[in-house]
TrEMBL record:
UniProt keywords, alphabetically: Ribonucleoprotein, Ribosomal protein
This protein's record includes keyword Ribosomal protein: yes
Organism, as annotated: Brevibacillus centrosporus
Gene Ontology CC: one annotated term: ribosome
Boundaries of every N-acetyltransferase domain copy: 2-140
InterPro entries, sorted: Acyl_CoA_acyltransferase, GNAT_dom
PROSITE patterns listed in its UniProt record: GNAT
Name this protein carries in UniProt: Ribosomal protein S18 acetylase RimI
Amino acid sequence: MVLIRQATLQDLTKVCHIDAVVLGNTSRAQELSSNVTAGECFVACENAEIIGFIVMDYSFFKQCFIPLLIVHPQHQNRGIGADLITYVESVCTKDKLFTSTNLSNRPMQRLCQRLGFIQSGIIENLDPGDPEVIFYKPLQRNSETD
């Protein structure tokens, strides 16, 4: 069973390791440290081992935004990414959730579509020859808790 919780500083080494395995380098380590410190990072754990993580912030026009979703390659295609996004939906305090991915990242695009996200635009010139696709999902909020 997968447990999702807010990352702590004790999780940072494992989060950075998983990111480096997927990315191929440690260039995001400082950014991930800032995300964990700010309470913006959530980890997926299985048998007390961190197997993936997600970062959520409010940097995108003050809306809830997922800038990063990473699942260790040995644990991909098991629904962990969907679980992490669903968890973020539950803790997001806005009624809109945004994320983005490169046009070349078909698995993430399929995940977004499967979870009810709608393509909301494309940004050119971030990565040469690989536009960024923006996705949006309206979230149902209980008006009594807003």
